[in-house]
Amino acid sequence: MNEVIERYFDAWNNHDADALIATFAPGGTCEDPNTGGPLSGTAIGAYAGAAFGIYPDVSFETTGAHAAGDGLVATQWVMRGTNTGPLPGGMPPTGKAIEVAGADFITYGDDGVHSVRGYFSPGDSMRQIGMDVIVQPKALGPFEFGTSTHVSGKGTAEPGAVGMTWIKTRDEADMEAVRAGGRATVMEMADAKGFIGVTTGNVQGHLFTAAMWETVEDMQAAMRGPAHVAAMQSMRDGVGVSMFTSVWKPDYLNMMMVRCPDCAIMNQAQPAGGTCKCGSALPAHPSYW
What we know:
By secondary structure, this protein is α+β, with helices and mostly antiparallel strands. It folds into three domains: 126 residues, Nuclear Transport Factor 2, Chain: A (Roll); 108 residues, Alpha-Beta Plaits (2-Layer Sandwich); 35 residues, no CATH class. It is built from seven helices and 15 strands. The strands form four sheets. It has a six-stranded mixed β-sheet with strand order 2-1-6-5-4-3. A five-stranded antiparallel β-sheet has the order 9-11-12-10-13.
């Protein structure tokens, strides 16, 4: 393999962002499915540094290098690593390992690497660390699509209040600020008295939260927590273009039902699980949200 190409992969394997930048000629670029376009200079180092943060032991094994013309090499590789660093968005590491195959088409000269164009499936690594990779349209007819998350509380009490919030963001920076505040608030709520559960969602920059509580008072107490106070302050400081908050109290609640695992009949849920008419033990009472 050419010495320039070897130095390029050595920099990746040594987790040395500065050395990686140094392998590029002035104006040299790097692009792959995760970069969002060509990167150059310090942006290449920042991109590599982010990868080193997520997979601190990341390594590239080159499995073939083929000259494809004057100053052009096609290199096959296998990337391996373990997700022991935080994921984008502040999500905790999964501790799972990845093994992803790919290829780089590299142009170079005596002054260094001129361009790298990498090809691989970005969904492979996400699936291997336990992430869902969902392909869906942004909108279809009257429907808009997005993502959601859910956290259940520890109790099984009936809900006495529902807090509903939505925030419309203007750009990616706005959205990340709302997400960060929302994650901190949910972590704070999870241990709060009377917390039943929460569902959050993002549909094309329109973020919403629906949280259930045993009482209005429990919810109001949680809203005075430092994470929620900080999130609300960020709204006053300029995050978002519109928002709506509200508190809803139940008008009517149907009984919680669970299906018997043996005879498949629905039964009214009992705090300790209970027994079906067929004599089989029923599942434990689930959370209401």
